[in-house]
Amino acid sequence: MFTDVSAVEFNADLLHKYNQPLSRYTSYPPATELSADFHEVDFRAAIATGNYKQTPLSLYCHIPFCESACYFCGCNTVITQLKSVADPYLDALIRNIEQMAALTSDRRPVNQLHWGGGTPNYLSLAQIERLWTALNQHFTLADNAEVSIEVNPAYLSREQVMLLRQLGFNRISFGIQDFDPQVQVAVNRIQPEALLFEVMGWIREAGFESVNVDLIYGLPYQTRQTFRETLTKTRALDPDRIAVFNFAYVPWMKPTQKKHIDPATLPDPEAKLEIFHMTIDELTTHGYQFIGMDHFAKPQDELAIAQRQGELHRNFQGYTTQPESDLLAFGMTAISMTHDVYVQNHKSLKDFYQAIERDRLPIAKGVNLNRDDVIRRTIIMELMCQFQLDKAALEAKYHLSFDTDFDEYFAPEQAELQALAADGLVRLSPNHIEVTPAGRLLIRNIAAVFDTFLHRQLARQFSQSV
């Protein structure tokens, strides 16, 4: 493994060569493999297995509502300013929590809890307390649990910030996207600079342990210079973590983009790559460590520490320091993940409500993982998180040596690995695969070597790898 795990190298030729639509590998198999041809009994059995093994839990609550549409957003949301919609949704959400809790052993600790959306701070103070109380009535949070929430600063109050910290949230994330007023108007995400600094002041006053902010490059009217100014102002906010996402312009999938974003206003591929390069240089030379994909963290942040110690993990909630857990997700469109079964709830409010009213789990589709899927998932997550793979450790974990060794098992992948090595993206040895500094920016391409589902996917289903 590299002595300096934060090393990253920008190579424009390689980025051009390997830029293609790929999964983000928050899971393997990717969520696109979930099918309606799935039996709920398999999910119930998977939870029972986790109960027997006392596998720790990660919990997710989806709050789908937003007061206004952000034109860049690809999340499953419900746009409405009618706040009365939140009460019936909370009724159904809490009933969903109760359903899952009834299936789950109360001896399983919760190491991670996350509220996402949508806009979780769409909820009132009383509604926030109601949901928090319901979760704590049915599940037991570990003392060192990661308890996080996403918020929209435009609709956030100081009272909400203080209540969230008082209840037990210790991590918070908010989207900036871009400080430039022209860009903000173009994507309908208007957040004055003074507001963002005020919100960060509340968060620091409340004493949150970790603060993440999101930026997006490739938005309308962005230039290298304007985004440099955004980075300078972001660093002045002094967040613990910064996520810099690549804007995926997919108007054939997102009608809002087709209606509101003029492709002529988007930076061309060369300009976008220059912005990406400048972003890496700015953040890594000003105290942030490149964690992977599009995430940066201060060296003293727990994500950076976990990566240096080879203990970083990744799931649908992103990078985490918590050990492997079963993810139980509540609410419309939410995805649950156990060791060998993934399921997704209904994507429409109507179908979600109907299932809850009938006292049924609101599962719309799912997938069962076989042994090969689990092995490949382990490889992909090791590469994504630690940037290296110990072949001997994998062989021992899955008893591959009883049948064959790593290289024999993955014989079809050897040619692709050799090609990556020839381009300087990986270093291959008898017992290890190491991702080079140049390969870090193309980690999705490296992980994709082990993705047996990739060739059956339509290119439009994924964003570009860079």
Question: What is shown here, in short?
Answer:
This protein has helices at 12-18, 40-53, 86-103, 125-138, 158-167, 181-186, 193-206, 224-237, 255-260, 269-284, 302-308, 349-357, 371-386, 391-397, 406-409, 414-422, 437-440, 443-448, and strands at 21-22, 57-63, 65-66, 78-79, 109-117, 140-151, 171-177, 210-217, 241-246, 289-292, 295-297, 313-315, 318-320, 326-330, 335-337, 341-345, 363-368, 388-390, 426-428, 432-435, 463-464. The chain contains 18 helices and 21 strands. α8 (224-237) packs parallel to α10 (269-284).
Helical residue percent band:
25-40%
SS elements, strand count: 21
| Mean pLDDT across residues | 93
What is the count of DSSP helices, taking H or I runs of 4+ residues?
18
Global shape: globular
| C-alpha-based Rg, rounded | 22 Å
Structural class: alpha/beta
The strands making up the biggest β-sheet line up spatially as: 10-11-9-8-7-6-5-2-14
Keywords:
39% helix; 466 residues; alpha/beta
Task: Describe the overall structure.
This protein has helices at residues 12-18, 40-53, 86-103, 125-138, 158-167, 181-186, 193-206, 224-237, 255-260, 269-284, 302-308, 349-357, 371-386, 391-397, 406-409, 414-422, 437-440, 443-448, and strands at 21-22, 57-63, 65-66, 78-79, 109-117, 140-151, 171-177, 210-217, 241-246, 289-292, 295-297, 313-315, 318-320, 326-330, 335-337, 341-345, 363-368, 388-390, 426-428, 432-435, 463-464. The protein is built from 18 helices and 21 strands. It is globular, with a radius of gyration of 22 Å.
